[in-house]
Specification:
262 residues; alpha/beta; seven-stranded parallel sheet; 8 helices
């Protein structure tokens, strides 16, 4: 069998001169990989996360590599409307407004529905779906007010399409993100804004290893056509495409970064 490990693709200035806001961007997951890829493509990036220490460390590492003028950070809990408004306001203050907003913040967990508490259900929905709603709403208001158009990319999941035991709350939230994406796209088209989503399956990073059993990770990887998990930057590459001019006629779409599209 041939080696199916992906090769990292260098940047091509696809986002040169643009300003991007990326939520949940501290660390080694999809958000952090997206921030890095955006910087490699020439964008200025405002990263946010609820974890202040990790966020600052991420900002410092990226600033050392790409320059202090290319990256800034602001702590943001997407369940707090005031903090969400402040995040988009910071993009306006720093660069006159965002051009791209990537809603990556989400919260998972495993619980059988028969035993799931209201608190477990509500917490996952509030971060993953309501948080995406708050950030999308704030992004659309910023785009409308600046009058220069823009792009929103939401992070959904293949579990928004398919069933997985123990994931009723997360699956419901991600299916909601897909529906939110479609409806927001129709409304935002009138002021030149595109709204799309990505739907990854298994994108490996250190935190996932800590909270997921090795057996489940192996099972999820085996379901994929390539027989392996995705690297976070492979998902980020698709986000770059959706943020760039190469997807200028795409809106309301959810792009599967997986072979598990229904």
């Amino acid at each position: 069998m041939t080696d199916n490990k992906a090769q990292y693709v260098p940047g091509h200035a696809l986002l040169a001169g643009r300003t991007a806001v990326v939520t949940a961007a501290a660390g080694a997951g999809i958000g952090g990989a997206t921030a890095r890829r955006f910087l490699e493509e020439g964008a200025r990036v405002l990263i946010s996360d609820v974890h202040a220490r990790r966020l600052k460390e991420t900002e410092e590492a990226l600033a050392e590599e790409f320059g202090p003028d290319a990256v800034a950070s602001l702590v943001c809990d997407v369940t707090d409307e005031t903090q969400v408004r402040a995040l988009l306001g910071e993009a306006v203050r720093l660069h006159g407004g965002p051009d791209v907003v990537v809603n990556n913040a989400g919260l998972g967990g495993t619980a059988a529905l028969v035993d799931m508490t209201d608190a477990q259900w509500s917490r996952v929905l509030d971060v993953t779906l309501n948080g995406t709603f708050r950030c999308t709403r704030a992004a659309l208001r910023a785009f409308r007010d600046t009058g220069r158009g823009g792009v929103v990319v939401n992070n959904a999941s293949v579990v928004g399409w398919r069933a997985q035991a123990g994931q009723a709350h997360y699956a419901a939230a991600k299916a909601g993100v897909m529906a939110l994406t479609r409806c927001a796209a129709v409304e935002a088209a009138e002021f030149g804004v595109r709204v799309n989503a990505v739907a990854p399956s298994l994108a490996m990073h250190p935190h996932l290893v800590k909270v997921t059993s090795a057996e489940l990770l192996a099972d999820l990887a085996a379901r994929e056509a390539f027989g392996r998990y995705a690297e976070p930057w492979e998902v980020a590459n698709v986000i770059v495409f959706l943020a760039s001019g190469y997807s200028s006629y795409m809106t309301g779409e959810t792009v599967s970064v997986s072979s598990q599209h229904p």
